[in-house]
From TrEMBL, chains A, B:
Species the sequence originates in: Actinorugispora endophytica
Ranges for domain HTH tetR-type: 5-65
Organism lineage string: Bacteria, Bacillati, Actinomycetota, Actinomycetes, Streptosporangiales
Pfam family for this entry, one: TetR_N
UniProt GO molecular function: DNA binding
Keyword presence, Transcription regulation: yes
Name of this protein: TetR family transcriptional regulator
Claim: Metal-binding is one of the keywords in the record: no
Amino acid sequence: MARAGLTTERLARAGAELADEAGLDRVTVSALARRFDVKVASLYSHLRNSHDLKTRIALLALEELADRGSAALAGRAGKDALTALANVYRDYAREHPGRYAAAQTRLDPETAAASAGVRHAQMTRAVLRGYDLAEPDQTHAVRLLGSVFHGYVSLEMGGGFSHSTPDTQETWTRTLDALDSLLRNWPAP
Amino acid sequence: MARAGLTTERLARAGAELADEAGLDRVTVSALARRFDVKVASLYSHLRNSHDLKTRIALLALEELADRGSAALAGRAGKDALTALANVYRDYAREHPGRYAAAQTRLDPETAAASAGVRHAQMTRAVLRGYDLAEPDQTHAVRLLGSVFHGYVSLEMGGGFSHSTPDTQETWTRTLDALDSLLRNWPAP
DNA sequence: GCGTCTGCCTAAAAGGTTTAGGCAAATCGG
DNA sequence: CCGATTTGCCTAAACCTTTTAGGCAGACGC
């Protein structure tokens, strides 16, 4: 009997593809076994359980996002950097909706601390180097930017901005203008 | 055999309670049947399927949120209104995490159009009456506020702002200050 | 080539989803 | 007030997903 060559890595990658194609809620251990033409139980040598699979997809997505982010940020500063990073999130969510959804999976603290999530915070902080913000305002701003990026992307993807006018692209551009303006004129406490 | 008195309404309400207590992912038709001490199949006279249950919980949550929002907005304007509405979302998510999670369920367009989601957009627009924004900037601002409210609340709940300093309450306050400032000084295109 | 280890297998239990069809309680018309 | 109809919850059953236990054979180390 030929071996399928399963690894945790390949399972996570295939799970990510399946999430993008069929939606995160259809990513099951069973579906994955079918995709590898292997019996379900075989996957349990590589995965602790079903939630473990989701976690691994989340970690994969966070890492891909962080890689794209640091590539986009290289050589940019100020509004240019802000726009580049923001677009990384939006574009990734559009290209990989299932992976993006997986990236929102709640991770337990140790896993989160070891994840690429840390790099995300660093990247946002890097964007803020182009603006003049001291602590604790810098941390407030990091959190605000994270909120806007995530909030906008998830509402847009969820159809929350459904009515057609104005264009959501237009809103996105204006939102980034607004954030840039806000960061340049951050209000004193 | 005595009847349990099930209705779609009661099922949605019990589902919402269960979501808050155990988490949205543990809200199943089976669990709900157990709670009513009734056989599983009986629920299928009141619910089309499992997804239908989630949808009804989502609609319930959206309505409760809208009710709280309009109560909070009554008699307030400007930053006062902004803060009040923002706190409605944050407080609701803290009090009812399962319901809040359910409210993020993607609804099909007809359901969404008939839902309280419409009132949410109107409430945000009402807040903006306290600021001087003409269309299309007003719509851009509606979307921005929605993004920040939703993004902040979901990141905070998901533990995204985990490190302890500064306090997330402090960030929240400063975020609202920043939004107020931004709306008063909305950048020209 | 032999032994060990590992990877995928079969088997099986347990629980969730959903449909079909039945009986009895509630409700309504006379 | 009683018979007919409707409605609500039931049993039964099929199907799917998750997860554990234990087995056999292919890959690898010597």
